[in-house]
Amino acid sequence: MRLSFTIALRFLKSGKGQTLLIILGISVGVAVQLFIGSLIQGLQASLIDTTIGSSSHITIVPANGKTSIKDWERAKYEVGISDSNIINISAAAEGSATIDYDNDTAPVLIRGFIVEDADKIYNFRDGLYEGRLPIKKDEAIIGRDLALKTGTKVNDEITLILPSGNVTRLEITGFFDLEVSSLNESWVVTTIETAQDMLSLDSSVTKIEMQVKEVFAADKTANDLAYNLSVNNVEVENWKDQNQSLLSGLNGQSVSSYMIQVFVLVAVLLGIFSVLAISVVQRSRQIGILKAMGIKDRDASLIFVFQGFMLGVVGALFGIILGFVLLWFFTNFAVNPDGTPIVPIYINIGFIALSGMFAVSSAVAASLIPARLSSRLNPIEVIKNG
């Protein structure tokens, strides 16, 4: 085996042009695979973060005609101990209202939270650009668009008209920007006690929201939760069931990415096979002499297997380096006006290692047929025919 490795190394060194050609082919293949895979993964991560990053992944809502969840504290406790995938839990009391301002009105959505819990999901504290979060009864924060529309300033009072006809005034303690216009122009965020009082919910809530570690496992977690909850008259929803079009788009991206990567690997494999097959013909006289000197068919075959392995390893390493260079150029030149990358690149160490291993495996697989051809060479005929 050691002799085969030494001969394989000498063959590679003596045919530097062929060796560099194969290494270049493998490197380009790995670089393209790494670039496209990282780009698609970054795009998907960005889409997921934009769509559901700061929102509820799983939501418990009233069922069977009910409009609120009375035993919500027990439900929240059961959620907290039911599954390690669940990380953030927040109860919400919400309802529609109309804001009255300057002889005009606009529909709004009242959202009452235990602010510390809700902030872990919606990042109100990070989105707050003026003022503070509501901490007392009859305090609230509103979005940037709603503040501009109504001309509201910090410490002003807003007038809300409830569907029941009741009128409530809330003191505005701050403004938020969640970077979603529909939320910025409609949400009135207040304490849970304030919302319960305004909406006549007593001590009930209208939903329990939560986030999970593994967002693509949200449906399984939701099903387990629905099975284990002891609270009656509720149902469990998850983001995957509510975003089928997004999932279809993500699946389409993944399939197209996999197809491109497979075709790149096939092209690399065929290139290695063809060059090594030619090498068998070119080296047939040397192999015949080696066999006449006593080298076994197995060791002759290993020469080309070792060549494939060494070419795969070197090509994979250079391909990974080239892939990172391509990613660096992309993130530095394809940018938004504010300087951020158009598509954030997602660096997955496991994917990079897998790409390298695929390249090495493809190179070894491509060397098997030339290795078999070399084992069939008859040393007497090869030497005789020159």
Low-confidence stretches: none
> What is the terminal separation in angstroms?
27 Å
Strand content: 15-25%
How do the strands line up in the largest sheet?
2-3-8-5-7-6
Helix- and strand-based class? alpha+beta
Reported for the largest beta sheet, the result is: 6 strands, mixed, barrel
Give the total of beta strands: 10
Residue-averaged pLDDT:
83
Helix content: 55-70%
The ordered H/E elements are HHEHEEHHEEHEEHEHEHEHHHHHH
Total of DSSP H or I helical runs spanning 4+ residues: 15
* Overall 3D shape: elongated
Radius of gyration: 32 Å
Oligomer: single chain
Question: Quick recap of the structure?
Answer:
This protein is of the alpha+beta class. It has helices at 2-14, 16-53, 72-82, 115-122, 124-127, 144-150, 181-184, 192-198, 218-228, 239-242, 244-282, 284-292, 297-333, 349-375, 379-385, and strands at residues 58-62, 86-101, 104-113, 128-131, 139-143, 157-161, 167-176, 187-191, 207-212, 234-238.
What does this structure look like?
The chain is α+β, with helices and mostly antiparallel strands and about 375 residues long. The protein contains 15 helices and ten strands. It has helices at about 1-15, 15-55, 70-80, 115-120, 125, 145-150, 180-185, 190-200, 220-230, 240, 245-280, 285-290, 295-335, 350-375, 380-385, and strands at about 60, 85-100, 105-115, 130, 140-145, 155-160, 165-175, 185-190, 205-210, 235-240. The chain has a six-stranded mixed beta barrel, surrounded by four helices. Strand 6 (about 155-160) and strand 7 form a beta hairpin. Helix 12 crosses helix 15 (about 380-385). The longest helix has about 40 residues, at about 245-280.
